[in-house]
Amino acid sequence: MARNVSETRRWTVTFIAWGIALVIFFPILWTILTSFKSEADAIASPPKFLFFDWTTRNYSEVQARSPYFRHFSNSVVISIGSTLLGLLIAIPAAWSMAFQPAKRTKDLLMWMLSTKMMPAAGVLIPIYLLFRSWGLLDTRLGITVVLMLINLPIITWMLYTYFREIPGEILEAARMDGASLKNEILYVLTPMAVPGIASTLLLNVILAWNEAFWTLNLTTSQAAPLTTFIASYSSPEGLFYAKLSAASTMAIAPILILGWFSQKQLVRGLTFGAVK
Amino acid sequence: MATRHQTTLARLMVAPSVLLLLGWMIVPLGMTLWFSFQSYNLLSPGMERFIGFLNYEYFLSDPAFWTSMRNTLMLVGGVLVITVGGGIALALLLDQPMRGQGMVRILVIAPFFIMPTVSALVWKNMFMNPVNGLFAWMAKAVGAQPIDFLAEAPLMSIILIVSWQWLPFATLILLTALQSLDSEQMEAAEMDGAGAFSKFTYLVLPHLSRAITVVILIETIFLLSVFAEILVTTNGGPGYQSTNLTFLVYSQALLQFDVGGASAGGIVAVILANIVAIFLMRMIGKTLE
């Protein structure tokens, strides 16, 4: 950048940008702050911003009142499980679409994308009834499979855009050198594909962690992930701001940290490679 | 050249994902279609019978349907206008040289990673609550009457919450696109005496068109099925004031146990989504490749 920017202008922009960023971030900050207050301080008027008796009691009480860690581990198992399952199915598909595209490959990818457009309301009832008769309601297995299916198009697309960037010449060179298909995959493709696979994994864990249509409808208690658990705080009798905040903070912290690491991949993954 | 053996292998590798997605689409959709022609209530099992288009007649003549249809479109449209408009403005701002740009970006993107039930509950209780919420305190501080947002303007409040969740997404995508804009082109335009406005209209906006299209596409997919935010804030109410199509189908099926009627609603939702999808795919088809 050779353009000169005046110092005043730089500081004005800095000031405005930080102001807006803090406003946007404020609800999260407020939740984190409230999680360290007593219930009385949490609803104090005027609100107490920093000067209150900091306490970590809410965090232990959330666990005492409910099996918080069961829901937490459900979230972990469901989001990672559905993503791994999806990768298992999508990696071969994306690999073959990227390296041996057929005439219809582009159409096939578009069709996969279009399945994402089917509104969940259109299939909720049969899935609910089938799950009920198969005994899959409120089971980790059931919700994991559903989340795998709804994220499969995104996983396939993302992997496809990453795999397509692996130069085909390298494969040809490997073949010239007499590499078998197995060796080709093991020693040539895998090392080049790992970063793409890792990004896909990260983004889909985030999406599955936050998914809140199927988890709310198909789980109630045993298999309920954090989305469903937090929703139980919406009833008036469950209304304790400080505890709600503590439960919320624990629910969002891991994904917030993962998310900040995955900004770049997020853009690419969610735009199906159209914006990089 | 691919040999026949390799072609077969390639097909086999694609097959599982295609078959799974096909099954996931066709089986439930077929069942929904079938149920939609049945009189089928979960409270009276064994009484199912074919009733033709009666469910559709009931569903389409129900004022709740038209309200929720209007709400669905207002929700999608409102959030799109706010997030795309705000996203362009924010992206332009964040693209300027400043101190601590990385940190600002991190703060701005954060709401996107918050699970919908958390953000809806935090907004509902800690901000919009007419007694204990921060907004109520701010209103009282300037001597105004606190507003019960979710009772008096339920749909607007939900639009606000959902926009807060999606503004970061739009900003991030548009900022990424903006950063790939050729700075030499900008300099050339400046040398030719182009003002800020004409630079924006003739250079920046065309460059962003692809990213904007993508943002609209992705957001629409998710916004058509907004659910958790409604469930934990207003439960669709008061009345049907904040019920969208997804929520209406849910409440008819899982709260009123009317499988037939809800299925008819589900099919209507699918048709609506398809109409939107055709438009979007046309748009995308033009901008992508």
TrEMBL record, chain A:
> Where would you say this protein principally sits, based on its record?
membrane
Name the GO cellular-component terms.
plasma membrane
**Key words of the record:** Cell membrane, Membrane, Transmembrane, Transmembrane helix, Transport
**Secretion signal: which residues?**
none
What does the record say about its membrane topology? Multi-pass membrane protein
Q: Which residues does the UniProt record annotate as the domain ABC transmembrane type-1?
A: 72-262
Q: Which residues cross the membrane?
A: 12-33, 76-96, 108-131, 143-163, 184-209, 240-261
Q: Does the keyword Signal apply?
A: no
Which Pfam families does the entry mention?
A: BPD_transp_1 (PF00528)
Question: What CDD domains does the annotation carry?
Answer: TM_PBP2
A biological-process GO annotation = transmembrane transport
Compartments in which it is found: Cell membrane
Q: Write out the similarity annotation.
A: Belongs to the binding-protein-dependent transport system permease family.
**Name assigned to this protein:** Carbohydrate ABC transporter permease
Native organism is: Paracoccus siganidrum
Task: Provide the taxonomic classification.
Answer: Bacteria, Pseudomonadati, Pseudomonadota, Alphaproteobacteria, Rhodobacterales
TrEMBL record, chain B:
The family database entries (InterPro entries) matched by this protein are listed as: ABC_transporter_permease (IPR051393), MetI-like (IPR000515), MetI-like_sf (IPR035906)
An example GO biological process term is:
transmembrane transport
**In what residue span(s) does the ABC transmembrane type-1 domain sit?**
69-280
PROSITE patterns in UniProt: ABC_TM1
Membrane-topology annotation of the record? Multi-pass membrane protein
Top-level division of the source organism's lineage: Bacteria
Where is the chain membrane-spanning? 12-37, 73-94, 106-123, 155-178, 211-233, 253-280
Q: Which UniProt keywords apply?
A: Cell membrane, Membrane, Transmembrane, Transmembrane helix, Transport
Which is an annotated Pfam family here?
BPD_transp_1
| UniProt GO cellular component terms | plasma membrane
Localization, UniProt: Cell membrane
Q: Describe the family membership recorded for this protein in Swiss-Prot or TrEMBL.
A: Belongs to the binding-protein-dependent transport system permease family.
User: What is this protein called in UniProt?
Assistant: Sugar ABC transporter permease
